[in-house]
Request: fold
Amino acid sequence: MATKERAADRGLRRGRDLYLAAARELRIARVDRGLSLSAVGRASGLSASALSRIERGLVPACSLLRLAQLHAIVGLDLAVRSYPGGSPIRDAGHVALLGAFGSGLHRSLRWSTEAPLPIPGDRRAWDGFVASGKWRYGVEVETAPSDGQALARRIQLKQRDGQVDGVILVLPRTRRVEQFLAGAAGSLQPQFPVSGRRALELLAAGADPGGSAIVRIRRGLARPSARCASRM
Reply:
């Protein structure tokens, strides 16, 4: 059975693929414009042989700054953008919050972690996934949220693509989170209309929580406490 690729290894592989693609575009553009290795090398402060090695994909440690410079010299603009990918690494605080939430669920419910989205090729996954025969909820854990609008957009997209009835957002019960929730009320309140405390009560009884909710868990506690996002 195939083993799961580590996030670090996936990132390195992705970086190599991107470098090779950029190097190939660089060479095609240089040749198409009739520019010699020596001419582009002089403009960039590189020798012709060094530039040739970059174009042939033999300098995987070539910096993004250097690639952007070379692309500009041959008349290209190098563009870089990040997209949602696989799950990030998780620290001890994240694991503890997820475990505390899972411990409060009724035994009749299906509970799993690192549940992939049901789209072929999509590397995103729910931190947790809780379901019964009639409903399904994705669970996301954030230990240090800072941008309410970005968080709301990301969860909204995952809810759409994840084919779930709602999302349970699990946060630590800290002063920093209190401040974050107060400032992000306008972004998060419409998306999480259900009281976190009520959602936990229903999940503990094996029932549908009734919609998306924000649950706050005090660090070090085995059982979660909650509050409704609309009470911020």
